Amino acid sequence: MPLIALVIAALAVGFEQLVQWKWGAMGIIAFVALTVGVKAKSVAIGGIGAVILVMLLAQSG
Question: What is the rounded CA–CA span in Å between residue 8 and residue 13?
Fold first, then answer.
C-alpha cells in the first residue's frame, strides 16, 4: 500500500511540474482551484479553475 501511495504522489508531482512548465504559475493556480473545487464539491471554485485552464489552453494553441 505505501508503494502505491508513493507512485501516485510521484505522478501528481510530475503532473504539477508539467503544468508549471507549460503554463506557469497561473496554470498551477488553476489546477489547485480545480482540485480543491472537486474535493470540496464546490462548483464555483472548480468552475473557476476549469475556466482558467481552458483560457490558458486556448491562449497557447
Answer: 9
Please give the Cα distance from 23 to 4 (Å, whole number). 28
- The grid cell for 32 is 489547485
Q: How far apart are CA 49 and CA 60, in angstroms?
A: 17
Q: Which residue matches cell numbers 488553476?
A: 30
Cα 34 to Cα 15: distance, rounded to the nearest angstrom: 14
Instruction: Give the pTM.
Output: 0.68
**For 41, which DSSP code?**
T
As a whole number, mean pLDDT of residues 19-48 equals: 88
CB atoms within 10 A of CB 17: 11
